């Protein structure tokens, strides 16, 4: 029989999971709001500091909490009666979490670095550059998509839609 968590350990792991998702969600909200606010910067220094704050939020409130959410979610699935691929709602959460993390690794860090370097080099006039505008819009939309995906995952957690995944009939 597979390892199962006792109630105390399960509650501790659930607490870690929930606190991590709250940090991740809060980080995504901050990124979204700062991304919108960036357009209102009054000078190059303010623009640079907004982007520096976004970079710090990405490094502290998004990357590590996302990793903890992923790991704790997998452990909760495997070490409880839910299983990792027994229910559609768990698979949906696993796929969404994985996609968000992969998207972040592939794009968000590079986008933020580009914006930060451009603001450092061009100052306030960076806001007028087409590449800066499209990259900042991409970052804002990605933050909105993160928020939407986490909202969907939260709803999926509580409503547990689609039920159990049915095993296919074995051919003999």
From TrEMBL:
Q: Keyword annotations for this protein?
A: Membrane, Transmembrane, Transmembrane helix
User: Which parts of the chain span the membrane according to its record?
Assistant: 12-38, 61-80, 87-108, 137-159
Q: Which domain of life is it from?
A: Bacteria
Q: What is this protein called?
A: DUF2269 family protein
